[in-house]
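Supplementary Data S3. Sequence and structure tokens for construct A.
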Amino acid sequence: MDGMTSELVRRRDRWNLPITGRAPAAAEPEQVLGAAAASEPAARTHAVLVCVRLTAATPGSRLLDFLHAEPCAVQAWWIAADIDAVVLLSSPSRTALHRAVGDLRLRGGAEVVAVHGILRPLALPGAGTRAVGA
């Protein structure tokens, strides 16, 4: 990227709005996403499981506050292992997921983050009827 492009990228926030907070003019999906992306099903989402280890100085409440404010956060679990938590992030945009993982490091207090993409669910008998930990 040239200097001008990278400056424009840095000046945009998570939802690709100008820093001033004004929403861009309404546009057709083809203009925003490109014709190929607009023809994909609208229900398609991308999801990742993120394994998080917090820094020694980071309280768990900081991660919790971040996750409450993060629109991509779907579910999270405290884990008794080498990691502190597992977080499920989901979004129709891979860019939004990438930014959410980056924010997890910067604002959530994560020291180590391992990201695992979810391809599709496994077909297990009765998978939709049992609660985790029940």
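Construct B, processed identically:
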Amino acid sequence: MFTRLVRRDAGMVTSEYAVGVIAAVAFAAVLYKVVTSGQVSEELQGIVGRALNGQT
């Protein structure tokens, strides 16, 4: 009986990893869209430019 419970639960680990991977990919896609949008890209370039020039 114990081995039956262990085997039944073994499939859950794979499905949990799959859901985690899908969530991570979705988050990465949203983050990519935000970072590559025009306004955010300009702000990031400004921040990097000020940092390289020593300005605050």
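Residues 2-53 form one domain. The chain has a mean pLDDT of 83.
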